Queue: 2 jobs
Job 1
Amino acid sequence: MMMRPIDRVTGLLSDLRMTPVDFEALFAGKNSLTPVESVELFLLEQQRLRVQKQNLLRRRRASLPAEKTMDSFDFGFQRSVSKEQMLRLSDMTWVEQAYNVCLLGPPGVGKTHLALSLAVKGLNLGYAVAFETLDTLMKILKTSEISRASKRRLRYLSKAALVIVDEVGFMPLSPAEANLFFSFVSSMAERTSMIITSNKGFDEWAEFLGDATITTAILDRLIHHCEIINMTGDSYRLKHRKSIT
Ligand code: ADP
Ligand code: MG
């Protein structure tokens, strides 16, 4: 059976790991192009599609539970953090210096919202970003030897520019878990930026970590280069609760 040119080209694109393109649309109205200009147009399209694919992949790997923005944050309601401070952090230059950001405060004050807004900024600037709760991070760390998925995720976390660890302090950790968390924070320090959110002030961390020495060791690594944002106030959730009536 005779193969049509388009089928041969589609096969070649696949062999060369390039993306299928709509040639009719790409070359519409471009009859006067020289051969080299035609090749250039095709290669530029391949480049654009590759960047697009990588961006999508990076967003998926970040595994953000939601895409929040600074614009949708009501700084009038949350007075303990200023818009200027968050806008300054939004340039993400601190990621280059492997600085950390710690957002501390009671439930509902917007810690996760701000962490996610910074994560989105990072993604838009092309950084590899990864989001985990402490709970899911623990599962990954505990199973990295026996689960390929966990091992792969851990490798991704270690290569990311920014790792968000959300909800630190909700659950008490066992001594083994506290050690795993310490090793993780150590391995990130000086290399990868972290955003930590916690409903507990640093003075309360020893309670859920269960050990004063390991707490000091963790905080020592974490806050060496760190912007600490103490948030107070009422829960936005409770204030803006929608009732079913
Ligand atoms: P926390 O992580 O501190 O418990 P969240 O960031 O999850 O709180 O906030 C709870 C909910 O309220 C989220 O849906 C978040 O988008 C919203 N929220 C919290 N604070 C604000 C705010 N100041 N402006 C707009 N939305 C907010
Ligand atoms: Mg939260």
Job 2
Amino acid sequence: MTPAEIRSTVSSVLDSTPVLDIHTHTFAPWFGALGLWGIDELLTYHYLEAELFRSRDVTPEAYWSLGKREQADLIWETLFVRNAPISEATRGVVAVLKAFNLPADAENLNEARAFFSARRIDEHVDAVFALAGVSQVVMTNDPLDPAEAPCWQQPGNDPRFLAALRLDRILNRFDAHWEVLQAQGYAVERGGGGRTVSEIRRFLSDWVGRMRPRYMAVSLPDTFLFPEDSLRSRLLAEAVLPSCRENGIPMALMIGVRYQVNPRVRLAGDAVGRADLRSVENLCRDFPDNRFLVTVLSRENQHELCVYARKFANLMPFGCWWFLNNPSIVSEITRERIEMLGASFIPQHSDARILEQVIYKWRFSRRVIAAALSDAYVLLESDGRTVTREAIRRDVERMMRANFEKWTGCAAS
Ligand code: HDL
Ligand code: ZN
């Protein structure tokens, strides 16, 4: 194939391969109001709130005192009317509006609001997933979240939405949440004494049975170390990782957050720090029967993560997370991964918080992944190997879903 034929083949294969989106904050319709969608939610995304405070003379406190629609109106006027929406997150809203043939340059949100308010969520999910080229998404499910826990009393069954058991409140903030565990009937103790470890193991077993999660997950600070003399380290080693092995599911480690550096801006208040990835080295080496999904938040940690993935076959790097999910950085990360790992990694997840975000996040990601992948095949062709459409399809299928399905045991290995 010529380079031009390779590029068009890669793009058409990527566009026609439905992805399994392995990490999102979306919820199936049976979670009710927890599932965010529509133009007001799209505009009050914390990425856009952060950008608002840089472009408008409004304090966070004044902004938080507004209602959701007023907040959305202020963001629309500031970032889309008074300024060109050239950032990643603002351009994303433009792409979503265009996908539904809505004007992206309107002075107000009247037409967009009328459109979304007329949508019925179940059909809307199908339409959004079709536009995004997504077959399934993995949610982020927190059994200690008081808003979510009741939903699991009578769980629905929506095969488009898979569960992931999120453990931040237990592993990072046990002192603030141990009493919630106690109230759910687990004999845990402040500080982790007594039967805490075995009771956390029982808690995990109960929730795996209830949620059927594809993996367990935790986000970790840039200061995360393993092993260390801490309750987190003990719970990870003695409860969480054994439970993952017992249930045949991976552990997702999402490392490098500096939490709430500016609490005034709430969800937008987290930042990034370079982590010591020897923690990943220790975990992969000392727990060879566990499988790890790992994503890191610092661009400086990405190359190390690639190297570790070459050392440990039980390490699956995934995604260009959060502050890295920008075309310039996604390109760099994807290229170094292809160069060092071939097709043995998971290039991306959307991290969508609002349903329709999967449309733009996957459109933007496919564009960048296609360019990186095409360059690799053009080099292969010029170095002496004929590239076929079938070879491209096989690699794309592997990266966009089969690697994950194999890793989580939901497909024949
Ligand atoms: O911890 C996480 O899963 C992060 O993705 C946070 O939710 C973060 O606020 C986010 O939405 N990043 O895209
Ligand atoms: Zn996330």
